[in-house]
Write a structure and sequence with these properties.
The chain is mainly α. The chain contains eleven helices and no strands. The chain is globular and about 60 Å long. The chain starts with a helix and ends with a helix. 20% of the residues are buried.
Length: 217
């Protein structure tokens, strides 16, 4: 791993553990055992680091949430989407926690985020339409956009919602699984009778994973 990649990796780790606002470039350099000058050789400032992290976040979504092909198994791909969603919410949790503040300090990042979210909304709508074509859900055209917004809102605000209700402010892996269960509940409301059992099996899978994580804490 290059020094630049190590800086990114360390930054994500420290931002998640202590909160992005509490961590400076000096903290990152000290944790790595390098000089601040070495860090600034690779990144101009903390905002530059966050922009690179956001690029990783965006790349993850583009790579793992590709539109379904007509002959794809909609439910099988939904399971893959949910597993990728878990990784995304766990790895980049700090970004959800402090999103408004991060974007308010960096106009360039905010413009990129707004454009990306518009694109992401279309991706989510495409997934919903593919699930409808596959007979998994039944939903009117005029409701697709609203459900896509609800799904995105659930994912975006689930982790800060949990942290705000906990004195420690800490997030556990079980919390992410419980968030995915909320996503599935939104989809279940539109599920067709013929696929209800399979959707319930998916819910049982993530409920079991959440319970396993809780028991191991």
């Amino acid at each position: 791993m290059s020094t630049k990649d190590k800086i990114i990796h360390t930054s994500i780790e420290l931002f998640n553990r202590h909160g992005e606002r509490a961590i400076t470039t000096n903290h990152i350099a000290s944790h790595m055992g390098i000089s601040p000058g070495n860090l600034y050789y690779h990144f101009k400032n903390k905002e530059d680091i966050i922009r690179h992290i956001f690029a990783l976040y965006s790349d993850h979504l583009h790579t793992h949430f590709k539109p379904l092909a007509p002959d794809d198994d909609a439910l099988e791909n939904l399971a893959g989407y949910l597993d990728s969603l878990f990784e995304l919410m766990w790895r980049f949790q700090f970004f959800y926690d402090n999103l408004g503040d991060i974007l308010s300090r960096d106009e360039e990042l905010k413009k990129g985020y707004i454009a990306f979210q518009a694109e992401l909304l279309e991706q989510v709508k495409d997934v919903l339409l593919a699930l409808r074509e596959g007979g998994v859900i039944c939903i009117e055209d005029e409701d697709v956009t609203e459900l896509a917004h609800m799904l995105k809102m659930t994912v975006s605000f689930w982790t800060p919602y949990i942290k705000a209700r906990r004195l420690s402010g800490e997030l556990a892996r079980a919390d992410i699984y419980n968030g995915i269960l909320k996503v599935l509940l939104l989809l279940k409301a539109h599920c067709t009778e013929q696929h209800l059992e399979q959707v319930n099996e998916l819910r049982a899978k993530y409920l079991a994973l959440a319970e396993t994580e809780q028991s191991e804490q």
